[in-house]
Amino acid sequence: MAVGEHPDQRSPEPDLSGEPGSADGAGGAVAAPPVPGAAPSPVGPRRTDPLNAAETRGLDVVRRFGTVGSLFLALGSLGAGAAPVINPVQDLPVLRLFIRIPTVSLAIAFSGMGILVLSWLMLARFARPASARLATSGQLARTVAMWVAPLLLIPPLFSRDVYSYLAQSEIVHRGMDPYQLGPAQALGVADPLTAGVTNIWRETPAPYGPLLLRLGGWLAPVGGNNIVAGVLLQRGLAMVGVLLIVWAVPRLARRFGVQPATALWLGAANPLLIFHFVAGAHNDSLAIGLMVAGLEIGIRRLPVRVKGDSPPPLAKGELLFIALGVVIITVGATVKIPAVLALPFLSVMVARRWHGRLKDLVWAGAPMALLFGVVMVAICLGTGLGFGWIGATASTPALVRSFISPTAEIANLSGVLGIALGLGNHTDALVPILGTLGNAITAVITVKFLWASFKWRYRPIIGLGVSLGAAMILQINLQPWYLLWAVIPLAAAAGTSRFRVVATVISAGLPFLLPPTGGTFDGRSYVLPWAYGAAALVTLGGLAIVYRVSPLLLSRTPPASPAPRAPADVVS
Prior knowledge:
By secondary structure, the chain is an all-alpha fold. The protein is built from 22 helices and no strands. The chain starts with 52 loop residues before the first helix and ends in a 23-residue tail after the last helix.
């Protein structure tokens, strides 16, 4: 079954989703406790029992095992993180030892990653939608908090992008235009904030939205030239996004008939989120958090529609909540532009709240577009940064070619073939062509899913997840954390097991493609195999201890499932 495919054409559907809301077809359509302030749904996630004593003990073991992994990763980051050029760890007794044993530090970091990923996979046992007993949203949220806590005060991991954030924020603070000048040009090569920026970004304009850079500009004088303080402040911004994700995802899941625990496990406890949004402090976190929070608020008062009924009158506060949702999503787009894709899918949800006609779509979309424009202009002018970010956002990211990007690899392969055939290396010429082609394909996919969602063949939020997935995968500079743009909204609405399996495999394997240092190992490629090998031994040893303490976690015995109930003959 494909993502968004109907599990049962007759089954009920939650709030304006456009697709039946069964979770793998397990259990009947039983209304879940409503979200406070929201219209109740005729279908919700199946009610489940709390974990029994043995399962609760197993959950505690998983929490502690994952926390040990976070502690390992935190220790390893001291010698294998993306440390600043002037590393303050050098002045710390005992801890500076990790800098002098980089291969061991790397092995410790990889061990922590392996333990965390295994813990996440074992945590899935308590979040399977077909299980008779599931962990609660609170238990999942507390688990995420335990795993995240050791990573809040460590050096950046997996990428040096946070140093670019600091330098570009300082440019804004000094009153210069970050969309015209790179850190080296605006601050000077000798500036400590420029020193930490990766070479390719030192003379490159900022590719980020004006709100993000204005927030950074306000934080810049707080951190000053203290790189550690600056990193922690930027991580604080990323953590705001994580908190919004943890808040919004389970609420959206209830609306679409997905178990909140399942959505939290896949969307918020995801290793990609922990490694890159928390440890890496990437600003995608804030943009995604605002996007899903805007969706949740925007549909919060929309009434439920049942097949054959007439559209009910406006509910109290309905238009206000829709407008608030549009504003919050627009704010997210001024952090990172892909968040804007949520607006057309929100307009489809609102149009389907009425008769689902083209006229309804126009009446829903036009005011949203107008409000979007007003908020966007207000932010661009209010921040004092204008509209230069639009051109920089479109051109700057293409300077980096990621080895995991299908588009970039096609360009590289074409260049190799050109050399082999005596036609020359045309890689540089193909990159912009393939980038434009990727954007065109994304546009086609987005229009297709918008229309299919409007015709009730898909949930609009699933169409949003697929469109964002296409937008990210087809980028020349695809990075592992970009996939969270698709995984997080889909985790809240996709009830098919095939999607969860694919997302689980990607989320568990992709983190290991980037070393924690955020750099390459050119000339020292032998380091990685040794570190991976040592980490594998440590991780397997930890797994053996877990099995001894709680064999339940590694048991193949499937969870007990309740008898399925006949689905109701209604659609939304």
